[in-house]
Structure formats: structure tokens, C-alpha cells
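in:
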């Protein structure tokens, strides 16, 4: 028996496909990942906040193996009573509340405030690559909340409270604005990694986005 595993099925020759049984593996739901992590923690008698586990599940991208690996990293730094803030700090994840503050400046068309905020992140030692990545994910969530919050509920990655906050904040943007902001953040994400001045691509994205709203 030969077992073939691939993420690019279209590259497998038809002569091979016609002679095999096909099994499609899908991403594991966040609830299932959290349940698995809770099972592991129960055996180890380690306490971790539910929100912290959801953060790990989100970072794991639907993979139990990756989520367990991330959990191991967190436990290696802090053995018990682990909070969401601990997870964010240890894994280098920029908390959604930080990104939400940044988006508030953009919703208010406050360019100076947004630029000061970005530079304050530098002083605090925040990884701007992670910040842009988090901003991009958050903006996508805002876009979906603007269209239909039910889409976010289906994913299971966000709590009802988080979805309500997103829906409220999304009222400060039009769908066109969120689409444009997403495009600018994608460009900034690519540029931050190779820029000698990491904050510059973000600053340019802020200015270009808000100039387009004048």
C-alpha cells in the first residue's frame, strides 16, 4: 500500500489519480483545537485561559499539530496560569486591541494620530511585520463584518463579543475604504520585510489611504 500526500492535487498525473482512493483532509475547527489543547493541559495539570487557547488555535491555522507546538512554546516560558497576554508576548502576536486602536485612528481620518501610534509601537519594541500581518487580518474581519457578521461566526475564530465590536467599528468605514485599506496593507506587508525603515511602508499606507478620503 502506497500513501501519497499532497497539497497540490492538480499536479498529480491522471494515471495515478485513477488508481487511487482519495481522502480530503480539512482544517480542524477552532473549537476542536481548543478541546484538544484542553485535553493536553488536563493531563499536565496546567491552567490556561480560554481566550489564550483561542489565540493559540487562531495562530495554529486549523492544524492541531501546529497548535500543540505553539502551546509547548508557551509552556516552556510560563508553566502555569497562562493568560492571553502571555501568549501574545511569547509568540510575538500583536494583540487585536492594539490593532483596533490603530484602525480607530483611520476611521476618524486622524493621520497624525495614526502615525504617532505606529512610531510608539517602534519604541515599545513591537515587531512591525507582525503588526501589519495582524492589521491585515483585522481589516479583513472588519470587511466581512461590514458585509455580514454571520460569516465571522461561521469561522469560529472569534467570540460573539469580538464580532459585535467589529460590526460597530466597521460602521466607520465604507466597503470601498476597507477594500482599499486591505490592498495598501498587503503592499505594506511585502515592503516592511525589506525596508531599512520598517515603519515607512506603514506610514505611506496611512497617508495614501487617508488622502484618498479627502
Amino acid at each position: 500500500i502506497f500513501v501519497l500526500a499532497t497539497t497540490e492535487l492538480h499536479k498529480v498525473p491522471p494515471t495515478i489519480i485513477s488508481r487511487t482512493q482519495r481522502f480530503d483532509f480539512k482544517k480542524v475547527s477552532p473549537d476542536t483545537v481548543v478541546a484538544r489543547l484542553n485535553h493536553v493541559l488536563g493531563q499536565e495539570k496546567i491552567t490556561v485561559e480560554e481566550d489564550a487557547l483561542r489565540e493559540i488555535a487562531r495562530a495554529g491555522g486549523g492544524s492541531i499539530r501546529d497548535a500543540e507546538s505553539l502551546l509547548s512554546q508557551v509552556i516552556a516560558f510560563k508553566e502555569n496560569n497562562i493568560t492571553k497576554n502571555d501568549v501574545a508576548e511569547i509568540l510575538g502576536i500583536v494583540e487585536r486591541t492594539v490593532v483596533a486602536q490603530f484602525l480607530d485612528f483611520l476611521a476618524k481620518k486622524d493621520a497624525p494620530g495614526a502615525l504617532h501610534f505606529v512610531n510608539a509601537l517602534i519604541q515599545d519594541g513591537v515587531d512591525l511585520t507582525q503588526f501589519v500581518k495582524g492589521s491585515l487580518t483585522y481589516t479583513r474581519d472588519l470587511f466581512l463584518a461590514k458585509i455580514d457578521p454571520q460569516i465571522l461566526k461561521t469561522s469560529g475564530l472569534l467570540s460573539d463579543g469580538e464580532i459585535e465590536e467589529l460590526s460597530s467599528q466597521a460602521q466607520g468605514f465604507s466597503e470601498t475604504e476597507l477594500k482599499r485599506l486591505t490592498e495598501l496593507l498587503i503592499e505594506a506587508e511585502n515592503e516592511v520585510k525589506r525596508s531599512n525603515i520598517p515603519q515607512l511602508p506603514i506610514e505611506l499606507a496611512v497617508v495614501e489611504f487617508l488622502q484618498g478620503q479627502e
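note: The CA atoms of residues 140 and 182 lie 7 Å apart.
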